[in-house]
Design a protein that fits this description.
Aminopeptidase; disordered N terminus; Alpha-Beta Plaits
């Protein structure tokens, strides 16, 4: 995509959108970002896990902002915050409010800040928003080891056994849902939306390298999570001679290096990461007899992920045979890749051009709630906002100007949303 498409500013159908765009307030955006970012903040970043008081407090804050402009908010069965406008919505937009431990203020939260600002600006401009806002529960998967919790619940793809997953304190997902305390009302109803749009910080550097504030997502990678258990023999650190050693940690370390080497050979087709390793017994003067590690594998191609996993298994066999170790390999979480809706991408291209940004398409190599919704058959799109400082750390940043552009792009998209406009002239008092 290159030149600015037609259908931009000045056309009659965009008059309400134009008024709302002009009402976007950078000071209001920044004040809300600061208030939201204070919830769960510790010295090393923000700690806001799924179904905790911190995540719930963040949802209550967002609900308060939206209730000021006429939205009705409630929590569904898994704690998703659903905020509805006065009339049935044509579109659902939003993201998540949970973070990784020590996370930043914009991963997920940016999508809520932009949606709230779009609703506030529309209200200021006397324009009726016909979109619902959602804050999904537990996108990160940090607490219960299952990513996309809330959106998977909405899409109907959570398995019964997922509710028995436990956090580090032994609390199950089911129990966490039961003991959740909140001032918000509960609902058992569903949201009658025709399409879904998620706005999210990029979390990478491609937009920054291209000097572009916004990017249109074409597809989202699929993810496989593997657990590997390596078993050797615990023994004395000094008395056990080298030929008798069966060191599970050094074997696991060689496996971790093999993961990196095999992924690099694919030249970007596969991204693979060992994110966690534990050792038993974990004593200074004992050769480790057991080690466990996790592997995160990402690709837009399911066959490529399956083939790469088979190659890794072959490498595991070779390493453990040579070191007199045994191993178990388990795939405990799989999320399919998702191609995003072409009509939404075209509408986003017009909206992005409407705010004088060159449309730029890109693949998401991070997982998002949008892929669960897309997988359920709902037309789905994503808009990325330039990231400064990476993501999943306390240094992640989005500039003030880019946040404003994101809110204006959302407002420019609303009249073009597939399935019916999500922004309309305010109805006179008493009309429906």
């Amino acid at each position: 995509m290159g030149e600015k498409p037609s259908g931009g500013r000045g056309q009659p159908r965009d008059r309400e959108s134009q008024r709302a765009q002009e009402a976007v307030s950078v000071s209001r955006l920044l004040a809300r970002a600061s208030e939201l970012g204070a919830i769960g903040r510790l010295r090393n970043g923000i700690h806001r896990l799924a179904l905790t008081p911190q995540e719930t407090q963040a949802k209550e804050l967002v609900a308060g902002w939206l209730s000021e402009v006429g939205f009705t908010c409630a929590l569904d069965g898994i704690g998703n915050l659903i905020c509805l406008p006065p009339r049935p919505p044509a579109l659902l937009t939003g993201s998540h409010l949970d973070t990784v431990p020590g996370g930043g203020a914009y991963d997920g939260a940016l999508g809520l800040l932009v949606a709230v600002e779009a609703a506030s600006a529309a209200s200021d401009a006397g324009v009726e928003p016909r979109f619902a806002v959602v804050a999904w529960t537990g996108e990160e998967g940090t607490r219960f080891g299952r990513t996309l919790l809330g959106s998977s619940f909405c899409a109907g793809i959570l398995r019964p056994e997922d509710f028995d997953r436990r956090d580090d304190d032994g609390v199950t997902l089911r129990r966490a849902m039961e003991i959740l305390e909140t001032r918000l009302p509960r609902t058992n109803g569903s949201v009658p939306f025709r399409s879904y749009l998620e706005i999210h910080m990029e979390q990478g550097s491609r937009l920054w390298r291209h000097d572009l504030p916004l990017g249109i997502v074409t597809s989202i990678v699929g993810i496989t999570h593997l657990g590997i258990r390596v078993t050797g023999r615990s023994d004395h650190a000094g008395a056990c001679d080298w030929p008798e050693r069966r060191d599970a940690l050094t074997g696991a370390s060689e496996i971790a290096l093999a993961v990196e080497t095999l992924a690099r050979l694919t030249e970007g087709e596969i991204m693979a990461t060992v994110g966690r390793m534990t050792v038993d017994p974990g004593v200074q003067n004992v050769i480790p007899g057991k080690a466990a590690l996790t592997v995160d594998i990402r690709s837009t191609s399911e066959p490529s992920r399956d083939m790469w996993t088979s190659r890794l298994n072959e490498r595991l066999r070779e390493i453990c045979l040579r070191r007199s170790l045994s191993y178990e390999l388990t795939a405990y979480d799989q999320v399919p890749s998702a191609a995003l809706d072409l009509n939404i991408r075209r509408a986003l291209a017009l909206a992005v051009a409407d705010v004088e940004v060159r449309p730029f398409e890109m693949v998401s190599r991070a997982g998002h709630d949008a892929q669960a919704i897309a997988g359920s058959g709902v037309p789905t799109g994503m808009l990325f906002v330039r990231s400064n400082g990476g993501s999943h750390n306390s240094e992640e940043r989005v500039t003030d100007a880019d946040m404003v552009l994101a809110a204006q792009a959302l407002l420019a998209y609303l009249p073009r949303a597939p399935g019916g406009p999500a922004l309309e002239p305010q109805a006179p008092d008493g009309d429906t």
